[in-house]
# Entry
Amino acid sequence: MLRLYDGKTGSAEEIPTSRAGVVRVSCDGELRSLVVADLIRRVAGHHHLRTIGVWADVPGAADLNVRPAELSEGEADLHVGETVGRCTLAPVDGLDPLAVRLALLTRHYRDDVTLGEGDLAEADLSLTAWRRQVAGWAESPGKPLSKEYVGEAVAALDDDLDTPKVFEVLSRLAEDASLPPGTRIETVIKLDMILGLDLVGLVGRL
# Structure
């Protein structure tokens, strides 16, 4: 189950729920906090928890694939903001907005980050490269996903949203010649449901 750092206890604690199978997540309205809150909702959903987002609309959030909140105000079991690192973000003109999400997810959410133009351009290139690779795998017959790679990635997410480790797992998956392309793409599709990076965006378009 998902555990997050608690500033009061100084350790990772299981996310609280208001009642069995439901967790309400709010955030402070900053874009980085919204991405973290969205990721929490996606991980919780993977664990078959019903998640309810509680925050007002924020300009630019949809561009980062943050799914809309169900409520604009109200009580929450978990508030995202106090433990999220500060973020300085360069303009993203001309880049895929999801490059920002990728750049944020490749850093741990509790670390302060400064994302300059070069960082975002690099993330944009990396995102395109991933999509091209996934589109290439899609040309092969489908195969069952790898439970081992999915399990390792989800375990990293459950451990205080260790997203940098998830990308290490994905890199090893991409280089694992013992797995057929069909297995690799199905595994990426499963994990991208949590990461929210539209890694299948070029499938059938090349």
In short: The longest helix spans residues 117-137.
